[in-house]
Amino acid sequence: MGDAGIDYCFVSSKGKFRMKLFAVLTLLVALSVALPARANAQRMSVAQSQRQSRKVEKKQQKMYRKANKRQQKALKKYDKAQRKAAKKANRRTR
After folding, report:
1. What is this structure's pTM?
2. How far apart are CA 4 and CA 83, in angstroms?
3. Is residue 3 helix, strand or coil?
4. Structurally, how many domains does the chain consist of?
5. What is the domain extent for residue 80?
6. d(C-alpha 86, C-alpha 79), whole Å
């Protein structure tokens, strides 16, 4: 059994063609899935936009409240330390 009329050059180029075809088809499938999702994300209704902005605003308010609470707590701690230091200083002067 020999190489009865098989052109190896054609076989290897056929394999490369299949690989390129597979790559192109894969790319087309990926784009066909990605583009509608992207287009759908861009088409946001007014109600959705308002709901999203309210949600973001609520998160920001919560963050501001937490920061304010931390600042108040730090101020109280500082005032307490100042009072304690003043009390200690008054005891030493007596």
Report:
1. 0.45
2. 103
3. coil
4. 2
5. 56-94
6. 10
Length of the chain: 94
Q: Fill in the amino acid letter for 59.
A: K
- Measured between alpha carbons, how far is 29 from 35 in angstroms, rounded to an integer? 10
Residue 32 shares a structural domain with residue 63: no
Asked whether residue 38 falls in the same domain as residue 61, the answer is no
Look-up of token digits 């690989």: 19
pLDDT in tens, 58-82: 999 999 999 999 999 999 999 999 9
Residues 14, 33, single domain; the answer is: yes
pLDDT at 85: 94
pLDDT for residue 86: 93
Tens-place pLDDT, residues 51-64 = 999 999 999 999 99
Integer Cα distance of 42 and 61 in angstroms: 27
SS3 94: coil
- Same domain, yes or no, for 89 and 67? yes
